[in-house]
Structure formats: structure tokens, C-alpha cells
């Protein structure tokens, strides 16, 4: 039985999204048990069955607008987010799913579950929608703004194993996000990383990819640092939202548009679905000792259940053990900074 | 009379786009004269009048796939691009418009026209479509991957004067592209630049903006280095193209979609127009002694005439003189590296 810890109070909608998501996942997968960390008074009325589900009470929640993640995690041991992380650290659950505030989730995973000693940095790896319908793994979009080629190499190995084990991609290709397609392009770190990845064992390096490849991407994995990853992913999200808004405005602006909408309603819904990241699952935290998936803050029940499905696959495939085998041993144990 | 030099052989379509664009501009503005640098055998049949238009013959063209811009510019004095730049340097024309290969255009402007001594770097400043219909100035999206806060400050002043003089914005706001909204976010250079801009005279600094603000932007100017600018702009372009493709696929996938399309054809065309960068003009090269506008490589006549319109306004408003007044004097003359 796979035991999944859920931060039930987290996210924009709290228990209103996480509990229906958990109930949905339980009904689909008979090999999972879920522990809901959250406000039992609010959770109980939402439970549709009591099988394979446990509630551990806390009415404390990590604030979605939290600006100081380290302080918030250190002072927030009794929040539903941190309680789920402690349970994973102590082996009470095998994995954690949360839609809490991103930087707090990364920090809590890092400070509570702890980094694998083979990984020198922790990465946030969301799934990026792609034209061909198969999402791409992009990392790091977290807070690592200064990475060395070795760190990016560790991320590449981690993501390669995850792409194989969790997403069933036979020979995942790794692309380096850069500002030109040829080797020798970009910042000094990009040039160094290019040559480092060319020689790195355990990955299939494709070469540089550019921002305009992002939703029509020739690689399965998009490797970048927290600066490039954040700018790229947010530009993608902002453009997609902006275009959807413009399209709605133009459709509503005339009678022809409104009539046309009635005919192509289904087509436009399918279009929206293809661009919707909640369809593909949540962002994975790579580099720590347990699988953790961070669902979108605005996830509703369906999206949250997809994140549970994803973390289930991460546990089932023994992802962490396989990554540890694939990663080269670090020279010194610097796990406890 | 404003004399505009046009790289007639340049771009994906060469004279087929540049000559109709020039003819269109001539017919609208009676205060411009155009010198077409290009293949006169191909140009002559396309001229619809001979008033205020001169052809200077060259059948040499800068290759759109050129990988070594410095070598290409140094060895390409007789290309239409370089000939237009030399004419600007020698005062034969007041400004240059080209749809040639971006890095070669930046390099030719830099090496031939030369940098202003008040500017330590040359920036490429495209216009980014925005939800409110008013484009935003983004710089630098060129090759400057390592900038100091002072360089970004000079770009901010240049763009502020351009936003006022060329686009009629009374008090342009400058935003710093970053990976968080609060001060203290980002790479060391982003943090330093934030505090530098706060104290910089001659600009109105708004603070950090993020990638998801990009098409719904609270500032008139988006300041970044060549790495962030390239990633952001290409992600925007790639997402916009990808979404347009998905939308077309979904519409074509059913009869309802096709019928709906007939009703909302005009609406969808207006939508496409709002996202089309050729509507707003070309990218400006900032930091050199003459106005230069780089139109999209795939510009057709209409887009190219918009780029001519834009460079005309740059000359008419005495942009370069006003920028020189606004910029602090540099300590040493390092114009001739």
C-alpha cells in the first residue's frame, strides 16, 4: 500500500479542493492510502468514504502570500504543509502532495525531508504543456539563481530518470535553454554547462534549445537555472493568459463572434484544455529523499487528484532509489548545511 | 527633408517586401526621401514612382543565417546592409531601416555607425504587444549577456527618452524584469540594479516586474539583460505561435468549428492582429549615433512601411540629440574599442 500525505489546508481553496481530489484518487487507485493533514472540522463533512483515509488535525495553514519561506517553515512546524513533510521524513507517509505556496514548499522539503547527499541543490520541476500533447519537464524554475554545471548535470540525471520512470519516455532527450542554438552561445555558465553536458554519462544531451521552442519542444527535458526557468515559464503563462483574454474580448465584441462561439464552444474548450497545466499534473521537487509534488495553488479537485496520481507513480517506480543509483557519489557529505 | 536609408536586399523577402514598403511610406509622408541600397535590376520594376527615391546598386546581401556577425560585417562592406550603415555614418542618410539578420544589424550599427560616447553598450529594443493595445519597449534583447547596473541605467534613460519622444508617453515607467516582485529578488546583478535604478535621475522606476506581467504590463519599459530579454521575448513568441496553431487545429477538427469560424472570422482576425508584432513596428538599436530600426525578417510591405514610419519619428523628434542631453557624461572616452 502506498501512503500519501496530503497538505489538506493548503492552496487557494484549501479543503474544498484537496479533499475532493483525495476522494477521487482513492476511488481510482486501490493501492493508495491517504493521510490528510488539515482541519478535521472542515474535512469530515467532505469525506465521501472512510476507507484508506486518515485525518491528522491541524488548523494551521501556510499563508499563500508568505514572503519569508525560511522563517515561515522554521516557525510553522504545526502547519498542515510542514506536518505532511515531517510525516514523510519520519516514514509515516511515502510521499507528499501540496498546493501550498511554492517557495515554502521547496524550503519545507529541503529543511524537513532533507536533500539527498548525491544532490547539491534542490530543483523545482514543473510540467510544461506542449503542442504534441506530451508535457515537458522543465527544471530548475525554483530559487537557484546561481548554479554550477555540476548542479545542472545532477538535475539532468534526476530528470532523465524521472522522465523514464514516471512518464514512460524510453530515451529522454535533454535540452539546455539558451539564447542561441549553437554551442558557444549564452552566458559563461551556459557555455560551460553545454560542454559539461556533452560529456556527462547517464543523459542524452540534445544541445541548446531557445525560448521559442518551448511549447513545440524537440526535447523531453528543458534544463535551465532558476532565473531562466522562472522568466521562461512565467512568460509562457502570462502570454497564454493574455491571449485567452484577448480571444474572449474579440469573440464577445460582436454578434457574429457570439454566434460563432456557440458553434465552436467544444473546440475552444479542447483548446483551453490543451493549454491547461492542471491537466498534466504538478511540479515535482527533485533532490530530496521523498517524492513531493506541488500542485498549482489554484488547483481544484480534478487537478489535485492528478497530482496525487503523479506522486503515486513516483513512489511505485522507486524513483528516488533509481535516481540515487544513477547519480555519481559526491566527494564529501555536505547534506547538512 | 528626412533621408532614410533602406537595406533593400535584406530580410526573408528582399526587394519584394522592402520596395513596396518604401513606396507606401513615400506616398504617406511627403517629408521623407528614401535611398534604396540593393539590386537595381530587381528594384526598378517594382518602383511605382520615382519621386524622392534613389537607388544605390549592390547585388550583395547579408545572409539571413549568418553565424559570425563580426566577420560578416567586416567582410561585407558591399552588402546592402553595410552600405546603408556607411551612408548613415557619412551623413548621406539620417537613419536606417533593415529587416536583415538581427545580430549582423546590431554589429553593423555598432562597428560602422559607432556607439555614442555616453553609452557603454548597444541595446536591441523591440516593441512587445500588450493587452491594452499600446506596445511596450523591452531592452536589451540583444547580445549583452553581462551588463553592469550602470549599463542598464543608460538603457533605461535611452528608452525613457524614446518612449516620450517617439511614442508620446508623458511619464514612462521603467520596470526591471525579475523573478519576484519585491526588492532583493533575483541574481546579484538584479538586486544591484534594483537599488541603482531607485536612485537614478531621469527615469521613473516602478520596481520589479515578472514574466507573467509581460503582455499585461504595468510599465512602459521592460528593462533586462540580453539573456533575460531573449528568453522572455522568445518564450512569448513561441507561446503565441503555438497557441495560434493549437487554436487552428481545434477549429478545423469539427464541422461545428468550421461553421463557427465563418461567423467569427473577423473577430479572430482582429485577435491575430493584436498579437502581431508587425503592427507595432520594428526593434530599435539604442546606443549608436543614428536611428536604426530592425524590422522583422519576415516583414512584408506593410510591416516594413511601419518600420520606416517609426524611424521617421525617431529622426523628426531629434531622439539622439535628446538622449545625449539626458545621459550623464562618461568619464573616459572609450568609444573606439
Q: How is the topology of this model organized?
A:
Two copies of one chain form a homodimer.
Chain A: E1 2-7, H1 15-28, E2 32-38, H2 40-43, E3 53-57, H3 69-74, H4 80-89, E4 95-98, H5 102-113, E5 123-125, E6 127-128, E7 136-139, H6 149-165, E8 173-177, H7 188-198, E9 204-209, E10 221-223, H8 226-252, H9 255-274, E11 283-286, E12 292-294, H10 301-316, H11 319-326
Parallel strand pairs in A: 1-2, 1-4, 2-3, 4-12, 7-10, 8-9, 8-10
Antiparallel strand pairs in A: 5-11, 6-7, 11-12
Helix pairs in contact in A: 1-10, 4-5, 6-7, 6-11, 8-9
Could you explain how this protein is built, in words?
The structure is a homodimer of 337-residue chains. By secondary structure, chain A is of the alpha/beta class. Chain A has two domains: 1-119 and 287-329, Isopropylmalate Dehydrogenase (3-Layer(aba) Sandwich); 127-279, 3-Layer(aba) Sandwich (Isopropylmalate Dehydrogenase), CATH 3.40.718. Chain A is built from eleven helices and twelve strands. A seven-stranded mixed sheet of chain A has the order 3-2-1-4-12-11-5, sandwiched between helices. A five-stranded mixed sheet of chain A has the order 6-7-10-8-9, sandwiched between helices. In chain A, a hairpin with a 7-residue loop joins strand 6 (127-128) and strand 7. In chain A, helix 6 crosses helix 11 (319-326). The two termini of chain A are 34 Å apart. The mean pLDDT of chain A is 91. At the A-B interface, helix 8 and helix 9 of A face helix 8 and helix 9 of B.
